[in-house]
Amino acid sequence: AALSYLTMGIDILGTKEWGSNYELCIRLYSSYLEAQYCNANFQKMSSILNEISTHARCLSDKLCSCATLVKALSAQGKTVEAIEVSFKVLHELGETIHISATDSSSVLSELEETKQMLHGNDDAFFLKLTEMKDETKISAM
Question: What Rg, from alpha-carbon coordinates, does the chain have?
Answer without folding.
Answer: 19
